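Retry 2 of 3 after timeout on previous attempt. Resubmitting structure tokens to design endpoint.
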């Protein structure tokens, strides 16, 4: 009974819609959460539904241009974890554009995990592939610690000051 949604696409669509709208009873939330974390199929379906809803709602990532540097910042507090939508947003914001100078403002990011780090590194590689540069602004203490422990901070340069960060891009080819 509990896994009916997995094999029934119509049932699953209803379940996921209710889940995203937080209309599911607690026991079903628990069952579904326990399931989708181990099921790529259901996880993808959930992610697609969330993205669809997000496309209709308020953006969570803001893109501004300062000189010729693209600055990306989260509108509200965010987490860059495997399960968080913010991560998908960030990855798409980078991958769907070919900006060469990118500064990601991490000041509103409270947590990051290995998936989050992986996405940051992918974004960096994407920028480099476009002969660009990607840097970080204002990582919060917990995030800074993770960047340092994993030595990612040796690859991704971080700045505390936005003006200094923007200035560091000057002299690089546009
Ligand atoms: Zn499933």
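Retry 2 succeeded. Sequence:
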């Amino acid at each position: 009974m509990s896994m009916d949604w997995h094999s029934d696409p119509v049932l699953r669509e209803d379940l996921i819609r209710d889940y995203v709208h937080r209309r599911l009873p607690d026991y079903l939330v628990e069952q579904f959460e326990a399931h989708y974390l181990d099921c790529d199929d259901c996880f993808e379906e959930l992610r697609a539904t969330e993205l669809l809803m997000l496309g209709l709602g308020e953006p969570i990532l803001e893109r501004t241009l300062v000189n010729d540097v693209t600055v990306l910042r989260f509108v509200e507090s965010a987490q860059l974890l495997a399960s968080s939508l913010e991560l998908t947003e960030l990855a798409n914001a980078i991958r769907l554009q070919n900006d060469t100078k990118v500064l990601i403002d991490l000041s509103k990011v409270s947590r990051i995990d290995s998936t989050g780090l992986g996405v940051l590194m992918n974004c960096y590689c994407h920028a480099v592939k476009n002969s660009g540069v990607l840097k970080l602004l204002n990582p919060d203490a917990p995030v800074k610690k993770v960047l340092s422990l994993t030595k990612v901070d040796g690859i991704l340069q971080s700045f505390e000051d936005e003006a200094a960060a923007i200035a560091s891009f000057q002299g690089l080819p546009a």
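Attempt log closed. Helices lie at 4-7, 9-20, 26-36, 40-56, 85-95, 114-129, 141-149, 162-168.
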